[in-house]
Amino acid sequence: MRSVRRVVFITHGGPRIGLGHVKRCLALAKALGREGAEVAFVASPDFGVAKVITSAGFDVDQRTWEGDPAAAHDALGNRDVDAVIVDAYTAGPEHFEAWRPRAGQLVAIDDTCERCLPVDAVVNGGAGIETLEYKVAPGTMLLLGPRYALLDPIYGEAPPRAVRAGVERVLVTLGGSVHVDGVRAVVAAVDAVVDGARVDVAVGPFGGTAVLDGATRPGRNHVVLHGSLLDLRPLMLAADLAVTGAGVTLYEAAATATPVVTVMAALNQQRNVTAFERARAALSAGPVSEPGLAARVRAAVSRLAGDPTLRTSLGAAGRRLVDGSGAHRVAEALAALPSARR
Questions:
Q1: Interatomic CA distance for residues 79 and 7, integer angstroms
Q2: Of residues 166, 197, 191, the one with CA closest to residue 305
Q3: Tell me: the pLDDT tens digits for 133-151?
């Protein structure tokens, strides 16, 4: 990666937005850093987001860059960089044009395909994107599909997994946003159909212990709450099954061959849910916001808990769909991309 030396990521996150944008950027940042790139972040002000970025070993400049093109331009300070990599739905064409004079490459990480992107490369590691037609100039590099899913490079390692006949460990995590009622409903649903297991509940930096108030019947399962946990891979590898959101966490679970029941935490996750079901790589319990979530989760978890063969097949299909090496592939592709500064 000697040709991409200085990289700035521009992104955002928070209780409403979640951590999906930040986690994708961190995954690619680690892959670039392994090849010697100097990486920095610009992120909209949020203490939780800044802590996640700095805990991963990167500097972050917190500033409100979304407001206007001038603010976007100023976000780079005095730096001329080899690549500006942007993951934020609020970045419009005017923002990219403001960054253009300062960047050898402009890269958009985007899974919506809803705006014009005057960039050199677009990255979308989502499944089921075959029909998307991006509004880009001819010659723009398109890195599309799960082959380019941006996960921490550690997910590229083959997952050690043994399928047990019964269910001893369950992971519950609905992503980085705050879904207090949803988490409570899911934990209660798991408690209704699984007995004597350890239930790991990862709520992220924007949750809290209040999510478990009244969620379980005493003595049924042992519930362990994890807050602000940056790496879910150990919990995924230990779990016999997981109930997860359908964003970045779903792809991490797939890369670890974890049998999954998905709960759609945002409308933009529908494509993920549909594609994973089509690939027979997950079961779906529907949206977190619709009535009857607990009943849907109970049905799906009961089915998985009682069928180790199904758990094995779901996990294997997930790993075939997402092999965890997407960040490395994107880093290699950016190294080969022509730059205005070379």
A1: 10
A2: 166
A3: 999 999 999 999 999 999 9
